[in-house]
Amino acid sequence: MKQAYHSYVHRFLKHRYSDKIVHEFIRFAIVGTIATVLHYGIYYILLKWINVNIAYTIGYISSFVANFYLTSFFTFNVKPSWVKLVGMISSHFINYLMHMALLNLFLWIGLSKTIAPLPVFAIVIPINFLIIRFVFKYKKIKSGQGEKDIHYNTGV
């Protein structure tokens, strides 16, 4: 039992710090930067004509579409699927609620409309990486009794 535990810990640590994970995070950062610039750019442009929350939402939705395809093909090297789309929509719904709550908190404490999204991005983006990685890396295993077990696809 002790040896099995040691083997599991060794594999976990090896996986945790592997080059694959580092490269994956770098690709996530590149995609995230593109999505964030797109989101902020649309928000900033629309802010001149419409309500701050509506401008932020339009920017968020636009960047989400680009983010989904870039995350699928570039970050995790998987084909987009309806299951992954639903998972990403679910995770981004939670992410969106965090964005809106934090945006309005920072506006309430006095940050300007142009600066308030920046600390929001700094807080929410790392959380989003963990959620999105889960969505794109977890798969159901087909067993003799149907698909019921969930397996973390480590890629190692």
Short description:
This protein has 156 residues and is mainly alpha-helical. 74% of the residues lie in helices and 8% in strands.
Structural notes for this entry:
- Helix 2 runs antiparallel to helix 3 (52-75).
- Strands 1-2 form a two-stranded antiparallel sheet.
- The chain has helices at residues 2-16, 19-46, 52-75, 82-108, 117-137; strands at 138-143, 146-152.
- It is mainly alpha-helical and 156 residues long.
- A hairpin with a 2-residue loop joins strand 1 (138-143) and strand 2.
Please describe the structure with a list of short key phrases separated by commas or semicolons:
156 residues, mainly alpha, 2 strands, 8% strand, elongated, disordered C terminus
Biggest sheet, in brief? 2 strands, antiparallel
Give me the Rg, rounded.
Answer: 19 Å
Query: What's the pLDDT, averaged over the residues?
Result: 80
- Strand arrangement within the widest β-sheet reads 1-2
> In whole angstroms, how far apart are the ends?
23 Å
Question: How much helical structure, as a percent, in the residues?
Answer: over 70%
Question: Unreliable segments (pLDDT under 50, ≥5 consecutive)?
Answer: 147-156
Tally of separate helices? 5
Q: What structural category arises from helix and sheet content?
A: mainly alpha
How much strand content do the residues show? 5-15%
Order of helices and strands: HHHHHEE
What's the total number of strands? 2
The best one-word shape is elongated
